[in-house]
Amino acid sequence: MKKVPGSVKLLEEVFPTKQIVATLGLMAVAMAAAEHYHAAPEYEHQAPAKHIPIVHSESYSHHDGSYKFAYESANGIVAQEEGFVKNAGQKDHEVQVAHGSFSYTDPHGHPVSVSYVADENGFQAKGEHLPTPPPVPQELIDAYAKAASQPQYHDEPEHVQPSAPHGYSQY
Fold it and tell me: Which stretches of sequence are listed as region Disordered (predicted)?
């Protein structure tokens, strides 16, 4: 039997060999995985963004909460918006309303235009490029109209006169 110095024995008691081997194995796997992982995709060199000047800009705001702004950039982006406070002075009923539009040319050279309204009903945008739901079939419209014209059924319990216990008069 080989004699082992006391310091090595103490080290083996604190860090058992199996635990050291397992830890080193996990570290090797983690390092190998890290070599194949890229935190961000690698892109080809892109030219720095060029400065696009604003060729027109106007902005107005008033103490009553109404405002208006518009701008146009040299690359053809155009935007405008107007807003006001609906139900001004009526606490719990005031609503900021905005309506406007913007347009630009997409990367494929197609013009894109959007008009919108934002109010108590949310943000509603309209544009030729935006998806819209399919039209409601005429059969469904007719069925809804017919159902609406039918008498309504109300599930109400019958009124039952309570009875007096046996041997007692009800009144």
Answer: 146-171
